Amino acid sequence: MTHPAQPKASHFINGAYVEDTAGTPIPVIYAATGEQIATVYAATPAIVEQALSTAKEAQKAWGKMTGTERGRILRRAADIMRERNHELSVLETYDTGKPLQETLVADATSGADALEYFGGLAGSLTGEHIPMGEDWVYTVREALGLCVGIGAWNYPTQIACWKGAPALACGNSMVFKPSETTPLCALKVAEILHEAGLPAGLYNVIQGMGEVGAALVTDPRVDKVSLTGSVPTGKKVYAAAAAGMKHVTMELGGKSPLIIFDDADVENAVGGAINGNFYSSGQVCSNGTRVFVQKGIKEKFLARLAERTGAAVLGDPQDEATSFGPMVTENQMNIVLGYIEKGKEEGARLICGGKRADMPGFFVEPTVFADVTDDMTIAREEIFGPVMSVLDFDTEEEVIARANDTEFGLSAGVFTNDFSRAHRVIGQLEAGSCFINSYNDAPVEAPFGGVKASGVGRENSKEAIKHFSQVKSVYVRMGDVEAAF
Ligand code: NDP
Q1: Which residues is 436 bridged to in the sheet?
Q2: Are 205 and 52 in contact (CB under 8 A)?
Q3: Nearest CA-CA partner of 368 in 345, 344, 346
Q4: Cα gap 102→280, rounded to integer Å
Q5: Which of 77, 201, 426, 480 has the fewest Cβ atoms nearer than 10 Å?
Q6: Pair 290, 403: CB distance under 8 Å
Q7: Averaged pLDDT, groups of 10, the chain, 485 residues long
Q8: What domains, with CATH codes, occur in the chain?
């Protein structure tokens, strides 16, 4: 019997599902059991061509519609996503293995927020009037044209919407390639957008591995590339886009610091560290995986952390009582287990977890290492799994320098009850998305993105509009033209 997660076809192009079984088959594996639940096929060159040509053509009329008309469609899509939240959350759980307890509140809902927010903004995207004496300049915010979105596997619905919603609001079209690991959810986003009235060809989804992504990025018809992925992939995609002078948004990896001063509320700090390390089984780019704890509260913090981490419920992700799911793939599980072994070998003190869970699927226990030093591998490299490194510190000055000593710069957090210190420290941290007495909140109203190797550009908020549109300026002369001859 066909599994309910099996999509109607692999791709969604020009307003309809499209299949081409000549492409490489991509098995979809449910991470909680290891069983194959669906198959899609990588896009052939013919599918890539169909998606790009249809998106290029459809954009012309869409770009001419009023923002209010475009926004109405996006807001209708947001409503449909909310109505179908349960069904979409179940699918997200099959696609990623993340527990339903999370997907019910963090995926289709976050996608719907983006559609609603950018749908609301679409009608108010205006230029400026700049007086120049009798003359004047006016500016127009224009669409870029054809945008490509490439997604990572941790938030397939959210990423498809975070890229699609601002792109469409600004009058662009999109071809979106999900990660080959999680190909299912973006197809639903496309289906819903079209059900809400999006004209055919404006939001297309095609499947495939890196080669398909590379074919999209290098196509001369493409005006912008927005990638969510790792730093090495980001460097490749950025370089390929630069060769064609294309616009980019790069949302890449991190190794973010979470700094806990000894005057912090311990319960809240532990909660922040749990949210910043174990949500989505640690597969979150902005995670605060280097937890710097001031020596005065170190043992108290570790004791409560171990106690609360012990309450994680590992199990069937489709059961709402489960609070901690598997790694997305067997490969990712093995990468994470490799880092845990490195942590042990290099002398970090294991507080809890530290191994594969004794159950089917790709589960790794939520793991905490203490006495981690800055040079250890687990403190330097992005693990993308449930492995928290706790490091000690004495002074504010010292911890700021150590927190910044990394190529990454996505997020940073500070827990303290001294508000002037909180702002002073945050002001000196090299990170794009920061938190005070909280961690990992990502509302659509707030800009999201990194500095240094963690990325270029911002998603969400009004900032995203700047990255999906360009400004035309027009000088208007009222009098005669003076010329030298
Ligand atoms: P990857 O970098 O491996 O892949 C990201 C996407 O790029 C995938 O769809 C991949 O296809 C595609 N891709 C790979 N090579 C190329 C290429 N040469 N040209 C075009 N596209 C290509 O990341 P993961 O999927 O493994 O996701 C995990 C990473 O994403 C982590 O490092 C994490 O930090 C980062 N991330 C960043 C976020 C942010 O907003 N800053 C949010 C979430 C994750 P395929 O995999 O199918 O081969």
Answers
A1: 414
A2: no
A3: 344
A4: 8
A5: 480
A6: yes
A7: 95 98 98 98 98 98 97 98 98 98 98 98 97 97 98 98 98 98 98 98 98 98 98 98 98 98 98 98 98 97 98 98 98 98 98 97 98 98 98 98 98 98 98 98 98 98 98 98 97
A8: 11-252+454-472 (3.40.605.10), 257-436 (3.40.309.10)
Is residue 251 flagged as an active site residue? yes
Ligand 1 centroid from CA 473, angstroms: 36
Pocket test for ligand 1, best of 40, 218, 233 (most atoms within 8 A of CB): 233
Cα–Cα distance for residue pair 258/289, rounded to 1 Å: 7
Ligand 1 centroid, distance to 43 Cα (angstroms): 17
Task: Provide residues with CB under 6 Å of ligand 1.
Answer: 150-154, 177, 179-180, 209-210, 213-214, 217, 228-230, 233, 236-237, 251-254, 285, 382, 384, 410, 450, 455
Q: By alpha-carbon position, which residue is closest to atom 8 of ligand 1?
A: 179
Q: Check 102, 116, 191, 251 and give the catalytic one.
A: 251
pTM of the predicted structure, to 2 decimals: 0.97
